[in-house]
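User: Good morning. I'm curious how iron/sulfur cluster would be positioned relative to this chain. Could you predict the structure with it bound?
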Amino acid sequence: MTTPNVLEIRDIYQTYQISKGLFQPKKPLHAVNGVSLKVARGEVLGLVGESGCGKSTLAKILLGLLKPTQGEVLIDDKPVADLDRLDIARMVQPIFQDPYSSLNPRKSVGSIISLPLRVQNAPNPETWQKRVEETMDLVGLPKRVYNNYPSQMSGGQRQRVAIARALINRPQVVICDEPTSALDVSVQSQILNLLVDLRQELGLTYVIISHNLAVVEHIATRVAVMYLGRMVEVADTDDLFEARQHPYSQALLNSVLTPDPSLGISDSHLGATYPNPIDPPSGCTFHPRCAKKMAHCDSEAPTPIDTGSGVVECHLYKD
Ligand code: SF4
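Assistant: Good morning! Here's the predicted structure, ligand included:
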């Protein structure tokens, strides 16, 4: 029996009109450039790629914070365009990178975690405290910090508060944007293991955005590699880390796999610098940096090829 999809994106584009100078005509910048993907219930999808590849823009679209220029997002088979903000917030919640700036310093822990209940006008306010305390317990926060303020807590505790706030309404999907990168190395694995446990316990689906491939390898069940607004490879995590197919995935992963999770994509040995997305290279946009470039790569854009367990977008795999 196949697992139902909880999230689906269909041919999404996010285009901005950018001016290169005062009297210059505007040019389109495709931050997301025709991306389709299905995420099954209970899956952990890792989204990786260099800065500017479109992964954060895609996260905003999934959270309903940005309306795509074109295409459709479905949550639990319902088009996001037909849902209001409260419906979306009930089903999809974010966990952001920085627990310092994502928590209101003037509010107590209890007030921060209960906010989504209050926004949703959840019935029985008298039960809110119980619900908050249950959720605090779930994320490993002691009841005694209920009235504390963020400034009285460690980075790890603050991220637990942010996770409790995201989970208080029991969403189906959690979008984690670099969930551990602002934390001390010693705390990162605790938070990652907590996310793994919560997924099991609550049947959550995660989309994990990270430049840290060690984090993605640890937690994701499937990985999508983004380059200049396209998903150039989607594969099961084991397949990607053992036998990646796209030359970009190969260069990215070969050069940065490291046992130290604090190291991100620092030295990718990709030769030419990341192209300007306003002026993307012709044909395959990866061709100026590709070690396996062929004669037609700079004139013909590759299309997605089904690999059986995933998708790769490269002429090398054309029949
Ligand atoms: Fe490299 Fe050509 Fe494949 Fe692009 S299509 S990744 S340039 S081999």
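The pocket of iron/sulfur cluster is lined by residues 247, 284, 286-287, 290, 292-294, 297, 302, 314-316 (CB under 6 Å). The first strand starts at residue 5 and ends at 19.
Let me know if you'd like a different ligand tried.
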